[in-house]
Amino acid sequence: MNGSTAELRARGLVAEQFDDAAQQHATAQFGIWVFLATEVLFFGVLFAGYAVCRVRDPEGFLLGSQHTEILFGAVEAAILLLSSATVTFAVNLIRFDERRVVAALLATTALLGIAFLVLHGVEYSHEHDEHLMVGVDFAQHGPHARGIELFFFLYYAMTLYHSLHVLVGVCVIGTMGVLVWRGRIRGEYTTPLVLAGLYWHLVDIVWIFLFPLMYLIGR
Amino acid sequence: MNATAITPDLPELEPPRSFYTHKSGLGSWLLTTDHKRIAILYAITITLFFIMGGVAAAMMRINLVEPDGALLSAETYNKTFTFHGVVMVWFFLIPSIPATLGNFLLPIMIGARDLAFPRLNLMSWYLFVIGGCFTIACLLLGGVDTGWTFYTPFSTMFSNTNVILVAVGVFVTGFSTILTGLNFIVTTHKLRMPGMTWFKLPLFVWAMYAVSLVMVLATPVLAMTLSLIGLERIAHVGIFDPALGGDPLLFQHMFWFYSHPAVYIMILPAMGVVSEIIPCFARRKIFGYRFMVYALVGISVIGFLVWGHHMFVAGMSPTATLVFSILSFIIAVPSAIKVFNWTATLRRGRITFEAPMLYALGFVGLFMIGGMSGLMLAAPALDIPLHATYFVIAHFHYVMVGGTVMAYLGGIHYWWPKITGRLYSEAWARFAAILMFFGFNFTFFPQYVLGYLGMPRRYHAYPPQFQLLNVLSSAGASILALAYLIPVIYLGWSLFHGARAGNNPWGARGLEWQTPSPPPKQNFLERPVVQKVYAYDEPSPDGQPASGATA
Amino acid sequence: MSSGGFWHLLPNASTNAKPLDELWWTMVGLCALVAIGVFVVMFVFCIRYRKGRPADRHLSKETLPVELTWTAVPFLIFMGVFVWSLTLYARSRTPPANAETIYVVAKQWMWKIQHPGGQREIDTLHVPTGVPIRLMMTSQDVIHSFFVPAFRVKQDVLPDRYTQLWFTAIKPGDYPLYCTQYCGLDHSKMGGQVIVMRPDAYARWLDENNTGTSLASQGAALFRTKGCSGCHGANASVHAPDLDGIYGRVVHLQDGSTVTADDRYIHDSIMLPDKQIVAGYAPIMPSFSGELTEGQVLAIIAYLKSTKPGAQPAHKGTKQ
């Protein structure tokens, strides 16, 4: 039993099933890793589907990929990488009680996430104009039209699920920022922020795989 | 770490309060984070689903009394077996033991005060209920006719029923399963009380741990696969549709990548329950504890590598067939070990035959028959004629109903005194267990014969030469239905009028028997004593005598 | 096999059935042996070690040898069964070279059969005894499965893909045919009969049902009317591959790989021409998906199989 446990228990931050704060923190961290493992399997299905369909029509996938906008993809990748950096700084600085800096970093992270979503929205609207929106307005011709259609089906499935994760991440990181600002997360009690950071990194990593598979293969 | 009290920083509880009386009112139940209360919420919900699935089964059995279908139209029959499958698999079998007995007992068995994430646990029940609502809504809006396996392209491009609604239901329920599994894994790793080492864990806990691994790693695959079905139905494009360049077998691979491990989600907990009951009533340590542990974990791991044996006639390559076949034979080895070990546990024991023991012995027999018929299906040459016939139906009902349901009921009887604090009528319980065993065999054994003779599954009508066996099976089903009804009555009676059970009515070992029945909110009033696992050869901390070497 | 009871419902009507039944009954025997063994042991233990009965209850400490034994023994038995099963499986997957091909198209909820001689049937399949028959099957909609219990054969029938099974019928008679992959409303009605005849009777049946045009000549007619010959024909001005004698040949593709021109390849080349492009040709062929039924594609394949290489003069188109 350490001193911080008594303090945190007094603040109502150590749940009754835990002996001390250290156990609670270790448990929560283990939990998020297990959760991230399920996320990997969740996205794994889409990657497996992508692999199978690409093997069946490699040409179509290359052509499909050429319809994506690499500038957007690259900027989005940069945004997410940057946001991963800001969240890492936030997680590391919270120990030093840099409340303002950490809150600012988290706000930046959330804003970067929003920027990502906005850019992706713009990208979707461009694709809509080019009649690439599978299931809504898709009109491509030529011998590989079906391969392109399948490519874009996967593109939407994967990027939409990814964007959904970004959206959840923005909300979570935003909430963390507010909690840090209000001093609810500080000093000895940083667990939620650490977990949110790990989740945000997963969102980032998924994009690191999506970016080459969607934008780079055809170029 | 704290060495004196189990609840170091919290005020002492008043001793007589059980978790039932800790708080009262409907709100205290619906917003509870107590794993024991959530277990009871689950128990009530899955019982309702079991009844619904059972009614569907009864309708099918009545229909099959006559070759042309005695009761239902082809359309209704197809929807009925789909509903039966969906409800029984996702809303009864998968949550059955883990979400009720596991939820209730896992923390107690390892000396914890609750699961690691109690609010997540409650959320998981709500997700389960929401998923269930979607499924029932789908039934009310006309049902689904794809079969519980949702094979494409039928489910994506041809079925005109509410596939999306039921897919959403299963999707949501999937997350309930994932959260339960996550909770169990983390709890087992991090919340074991001091002294409770991995190899002192009861096999029930090991089974929960092994099954949670499967839940956490397989269920997301199902969720995403079903969501792709939904997307494909909405967009009329997708990776499963051959007409669009997709792969018609891809869905089957993805589906069985989940659904084969899912059968281990259903059977591993049952093995855990039986591994508790048999040592208790044989009054000796389980034979080969470590082998049992390795077998449990081995099954859960190899279980991920055998999905292709559902596809031997689906058009898969011969190489894949070879690999999946040999792996399927290999996974039968740990199951065989378990059967032998349970049997060997009886040797030199001091056996009594209370109802839970009867269920457990019934389980071993039926599971063995079901498992061995699975071996025949693992051999590709034999799978060719047997695949998708009633042989397969009989095989998995022996494992799922003869195995899992028997073990679930055995577990409910075994821990009933702990959960409710009361005893039930032993005579009725034994009668029901025996009746169930015979009713079950009566129902499903004829289906092995039907399958060998070539009657395909999912047939609303069938050639007249199969009638005799079908009538036999339906007759058996009516006995089985009766056998399932009896416990509802005497257990219901026990709830209000049963004799008080005391802490340890069976003289069992394990931490859960060292706390009052029903347990207090905090699970233990005083710190329990960790013994060796299944320490029937030494006195228990609550004064139960050791089971001596000679009579 | 025993002839009494239910078993007469499942005759051995193909060469496949007997070896399979031997494996099956061996497995049944083995399983029964183990099951009875375990039940007897359980029963004896339950009696001998029931509470209150005096007995020696000392437990031996050394359990590892026992456990290793009953891990290894089942494992070895399983491997034996596996190898046995595999040899039968390999046999069931490799039709003999002299097998006669009959084409099957499945659709909700019927089986359409096309004989090489042009004879067509629905939900019935006539075959002779003693001749290996290879069924080349595809589906027009969902997945079906072709199952004849008396022959112990079953194979799923997939859309957009050819699957095959083979058998040699040995006993004349009518045998039920079932669909065993759930395929919608009338799944249970999607059945029929396989009628096995002596070769002479079969020849008579073929004669009586002769439509005058063989499947290959039906295919040849389609090849002309659907416009294939416009590009692939001898006098075509378009630069398209010569298809005479294409069947079974090795084709070089644009991406540098090679494929053997089997049924699947020809089917896909007609329905999904952009999937595999032959080296040296522009991808200009339109898809016939929707134009042709699966049955018509099978006829064209039969026609291409019947053609001999070298019947055409060299291409007139310009090389690219």
Features of this protein?
heterotrimer, A: 219 residues, two-stranded antiparallel ribbon, B: 551 residues, 15 helices, 0% strand
Describe this structure in words.
The complex is a heterotrimer of chains A (219), B (551) and C (320). Chain A has helices at 3-10, 21-56, 58-66, 70-93, 99-129, 145-181, 191-216; strands spanning 132-133, 137-138. In chain A, 78% of the residues lie in helices and 2% in strands. Chain A is mainly alpha-helical. Chain B is mostly helical and 551 residues long. Chain B is 65% helix and 0% strand. In chain B, helix 2 (35-63) runs antiparallel to helix 15 (467-497), helix 4 (118-140) runs antiparallel to helix 6 and helix 8 (248-282) runs antiparallel to helix 11 (355-378). Residues 1-15 of chain B have low confidence and may be disordered. Chain C contains seven helices and twelve strands. Residues 312-320 of chain C have low confidence and may be disordered. Chains in contact: A-B, A-C, B-C. The interface between B and C is large, with 91 and 81 residues.
Mean of residue pLDDT values of chain B: 91
Shape descriptor of chain B reads globular
Q: How are helices and strands ordered from N to C of chain A?
A: HHHHHEEHH
Determine the fraction of residues in helical runs of chain A and give it as a percent range.
over 70%
Structural class of chain B: mainly alpha
Fold topology:
The complex is a heterotrimer of chains A (219), B (551) and C (320).
Chain A lengths: L2 H8 L10 H36 L1 H9 L3 H24 L5 H31 L2 E2 L3 E2 L6 H37 L9 H26 L3
Antiparallel strand pairs in A: 1-2
Chain B lengths: L25 H5 L4 H29 L10 H36 L8 H23 L13 H5 L4 H28 L12 H33 L12 H35 L6 H14 L15 H29 L8 H24 L1 H7 L3 H31 L5 H28 L13 H31 L54
Helix pairs in contact in B: 2-3, 2-4, 2-15, 3-4, 3-6, 3-7, 3-8, 3-13, 4-6, 6-7, 7-8, 7-9, 8-10, 8-11, 8-13, 9-10, 10-11, 11-13, 11-14, 13-14, 14-15
Chain C lengths: L16 H32 L15 H30 L6 E8 L2 E5 L5 E3 L1 E5 L3 E8 L4 E5 L4 E5 L5 E6 L4 E7 L11 E7 L1 H10 L6 H11 L2 H5 L17 E3 L5 E3 L2 H9 L22 H13 L14
Helix pairs in contact in C: 1-2, 4-7
